[in-house]
Specification:
This protein is about 25% helix and about 35% strand. It is of the alpha+beta class.
């Protein structure tokens, strides 16, 4: 009989099983964006640290230019797999696969670039914030500044009020689900543009919680019964080009406990609160929509909708 040997708090945290990585390797948008960002940020001969390296694919991208890469992975099955794969890929001799907890590991010397792809929609479920925050504190205490460049360099978190059918062959099932960020999703009808509720820069102090309180003006009429959460990761800022290499997580559609018929021009407030790396239930329990007439004016220190509009 199969026995669960991985604690629940680590599943999709730091401890993603091998079969899950197959889907990530198939994601061409993810693979090409990370490859381009890592190659752009890695100087020739650089020292690179890959926290939560998985199969080692991102370490492989770095090794094409780096002098040495420390690929840190906690899952023993993935450690064995990554070591085997490195023997069969170019530049694998530059990658040192280390079995260790990314929350605790420090390289033996300062590094130029840190890769950490523990990204999930809204920065929930996985431990991106906790791992990088722990690394920042320990690295500065041991080596001093400055911090290395991070991949990704930043994440933008946005939310959008939507109308979403939850009928399946006559069965009503309003449950959360994920969408491919590159898909069409004709059934999901945006009632206005998404707005950014948090911008996270990984070389700065990182938030432990995300508090959403965002005012929207409806651009079209419909039934507001769900929120769509969007996470865009800025993998590398290209200063000379004035652009960034980007990759987006899957969208997350969350049903609301209370639905509203809204008209174009109606104003509402979306509120929610959740901890970085939390389970989805924390977001589901807190998410709500309040008509502005019942809530009151947004405090004057909030950014305007135009300033926070998602790119």
């Amino acid at each position: 009989m199969f026995q669960q040997t991985i604690p629940d708090e680590h599943v999709l945290g730091q401890y993603i099983p091998l079969h899950y990585h197959y889907n990530m390797l198939l994601d061409q948008a993810r693979m090409s964006s990370f490859r381009d960002a890592i190659e752009y940020l890695t100087p020739p001969g650089a020292k690179v640290l890959d926290l939560g390296g998985g199969t080692g694919v991102l370490s492989h991208f770095a090794a094409s230019k780096a002098g040495h890469v420390w690929c840190v992975e906690r899952n023993p099955e993935l450690v064995r797999t990554a070591r085997r794969l490195m023997r069969h890929n170019p530049f694998g001799h530059r990658v040192e696969v280390i079995q260790a907890d990314a929350m605790e590991y420090l390289p033996p010397e300062p590094v130029d670039v840190v890769i950490c792809e523990m990204l999930h929609t809204g920065l929930m479920r996985e431990k991106q914030i906790q791992v990088i925050g722990s690394f920042q504190e320990r690295y500065l205490a041991h080596f001093g500044g400055p911090l290395p460049r991070f991949v990704p360099e930043a994440s933008l978190l946005a939310v959008q009020p939507v109308e979403q059918p939850f009928e399946f062959s006559g069965f009503s099932a309003p449950i959360p689900f994920f969408q491919d960020s590159g898909g069409n999703h004709e059934q999901t009808r945006g009632l206005c543009q998404p707005l950014v509720y948090a911008a996270v820069e990984y070389d700065r102090a990182l938030p432990e919680r995300f508090e959403g309180r965002t005012k929207f003006s409806m651009e079209r009429s419909g039934q507001l019964n769900a929120l769509r959460f969007i996470t865009k990761n800025l993998l590398a800022f290209q200063e000379s080009e004035g652009s960034a290499i980007e990759w987006s997580n899957q969208y997350l559609v969350v049903p609301l406990r209370q639905t509203f018929d809204v008209a174009a021009g109606a104003e509402i407030v979306v509120e929610f609160s959740y901890g970085a790396g939390c389970q989805l239930e924390e977001l589901l329990d807190s998410a709500q929509v309040i008509p502005l007439s019942q809530w009151g004016a947004i405090p004057s220190d909030r950014h305007t909708a135009a300033e926070r509009r998602a790119a």
